[in-house]
Amino acid sequence: MSTVVLLCITGLGLGALYFLVASGLSLIFGLMDVLNFAHGALLSVGAYATWWAASHSFGYPLALLFGTAVGTLASVALELGLIRPLYRRPREQVLATVGVGLAVPALLSAIWGADARTFPVPGALAGTFTLLGASVPVNRLVLIGAALVVLLALRLFLGRTRHGLVVRAGVEDRAMVTALGIDVRRAFTLVFAIGGAAAALAGGLAGLYFGSVDPTQGGSLLIFGFVVVVMGGLGSVSGAAVACVVVGLVQQFANYYSTAGLGDLSVVVMLAALLLVRPSGLTGRLA
């Protein structure tokens, strides 16, 4: 019983990390029709910024805030300097974001080396607590809580705020919204900033989960981020949340009860089966 409880909580924690990665991807694609292959690079930027701040005597909350801010600024710079001129050129857009996704890890390796750096986990988050006989790491609850907050914030942004409604209207009829005197470009930059902030937050929290940061971490998590986005339905934040729970639990149980690495294979098989039965994913709408 204790083993099942531990696997469930750690699986939910892993799923929460995947959601933080996938939420930004889903938001940007759903609202802007942009497949951002540089999303993993933004995660790595947030991870290293959080690690640097935490290593220089910042408290972890301040370090996480700093890392998220740096990742947000990087995403805004990416949108303004690279994505905006290519909105009507999707092929060049993909190539450009892939290039950034390859260049940033190389830059991080050149500055701090290719080896993993130990993440300074604060004492309050390094311990465990007992739940139904299982010793559960505290940081898993932090990841789950952060994912729930981000999910709620995104749903409120999309459905209850003026900026969210403007962005959705701009996607449907950009010319009409512009004719009403609304700057759609500024709203799109805001969406990119929110997506980048989610990626950077995921990077800062990934240090807690893995206990280290390395230049390739963002790219590895990006793969599962795309898997979750496709399973949940392209552009559906709620669908991504459901898919993250399923993927995280399947990975944890498959890795524990079978050979190492079978969890990743199980996720791929599950993705293929879902697409054969339901090509649009769990949901096909932005919500």
How would you describe what is shown here?
This protein has 287 residues and is mostly helical. It has one domain. The protein is built from 12 helices and 4 strands. It has a two-stranded antiparallel ribbon with strand order 1-4. Strand 2 and strand 3 form a beta hairpin. Helix 1 runs antiparallel to helix 11 (237-257) and helix 2 packs antiparallel against helix 3 (60-83). The mean pLDDT is 83.
How is the secondary structure organized here?
Layout lengths: L1 H31 L6 H17 L4 H24 L6 H23 L4 E2 L4 H4 L1 E4 L2 E4 H23 L1 H11 L1 H6 L4 H27 L1 E2 L3 H16 L4 H21 L4 H16 L10
Antiparallel strand pairs: 1-4, 2-3
Helix pairs in contact: 1-6, 1-9, 1-10, 1-11, 2-3, 2-4, 2-9, 2-10, 3-9, 6-7, 6-9, 7-9, 10-11, 11-12
GO molecular function: transmembrane transporter activity
Protein name: Branched-chain amino acid ABC transporter permease
Organism: Streptacidiphilus pinicola
* N/C terminus separation: 36 Å
Fraction of residues in helix: over 70%
How would you describe the shape?
Answer: globular
* Residue windows where pLDDT falls under 50 for at least 5 positions: none
Rg from C-alpha positions? 19 Å
Q: Could you give the order of the helices and strands? A: HHHHEHEEHHHHEHHH
Q: Please, how many helices? A: 12
Counted beta strands: 4
Domains counted in the coordinates: how many?
1
Largest sheet: 2 strands, antiparallel
Strand share of the residues? under 5%
Mean pLDDT: 83
Adjacency order of strands in the biggest sheet: 1-4
Structural class given helices, strands, pairing?
mainly alpha
Oligomer: single chain
Subcellular location: Cell membrane
Protein name: Branched-chain amino acid ABC transporter permease
InterPro entries: ABC_transp_permease, BCAA_transport_permease
Transmembrane segments: 6-27, 60-82, 94-114, 141-158, 187-210, 222-249, 256-277
